Amino acid sequence: MSELTVPAPQPPRRPRPAGVRHIVWDWNGTLFDDAAAVLAATQDVLAEIGGPAVDDHTYRTAYTRPVRRTYDRLLGRAVTEAEWERIGAGYLRHYTRHAAASGLSADAHEAIALAAGTGLSQSLLSMLTHDLLVEVVARLGVNGAGTLVRVDGWPPGSSTYKADHLAAHLAALGLAGSEVALVGDSLDDLAAAESVGALGILYDGGAHHRHALEATGAPVADTLTAAVDLLRAARSGAAPAD
Fold first, then answer.
1. Where would I find the beta strands (DSSP E) of 17-143?
2. Most buried residue, 28, 43, 106, 153, by most Cβ within 10 Å?
3. Domain limits, the chain
4. Could you tell me the fold of the domain covering 35-99?
5. Is the separation of the CB atoms in 218 and 231 below 8 Å?
6. DSSP assignment letter at 65
7. Nearest-CA neighbor of 187 among 20, 70, 85?
8. Could you name the CATH architecture of 17-34+104-236?
9. pTM given for the model
10. Shortest CA distance to 42 belongs to which of 59, 28, 27?
11. In DSSP terms, which residues pair with 109 in a beta bridge?
């Protein structure tokens, strides 16, 4: 199983929000409300290796990158190589089945429209396998109006660092990091944003407990429209709307 890893923490290089003109949306746990599917798939693979039953609170508390460390924490010991192979073979299968019942976050379409109305260009970057991402995005009609100028998922066998894919994503768009805000639900998203000098806005979508998001000092939003509003306010120097 290819682990999705993050680089060692680097000092934040947050740009001046006034220069931001493009939003990169994360998918899992952000535009796509799949927290229940992720938890269910994790429960399934843990059951297959004789692991404990876990609830949402336990999963959020344990969740980290690399993903293997999450399973170390959930098991209370190091995952064996044989177990890791079984997790790798089973997780995507279980996730795909559970995610079929998942939908977009409640205000996903509204947030995309709000950003477009503000004059911000937008794209989508995910570490979900590219072919599966494209399939689900099309099924849910996320980009029916062509508002998202680029949709990139993870090409199997490529780098497992989201920061690398964000750099390539921005290069393909011809954008500098200082022109970009990345909206995502995980600390991995924030690390990727800061690695290219982009602004990271965290959405409380399920990957971590709220206090873990707030501890970063990055802006944190309860909804996707609130995330766009935070960016709009920061660009204009005004206070965000209540």
1. 22-25, 32-33, 103-104, 121-129
2. 28
3. 17-34+104-236, 35-99
4. DNA polymerase; domain 1 (1.10.150)
5. no
6. S
7. 70
8. 3-Layer(aba) Sandwich (3.40)
9. 0.88
10. 59
11. none
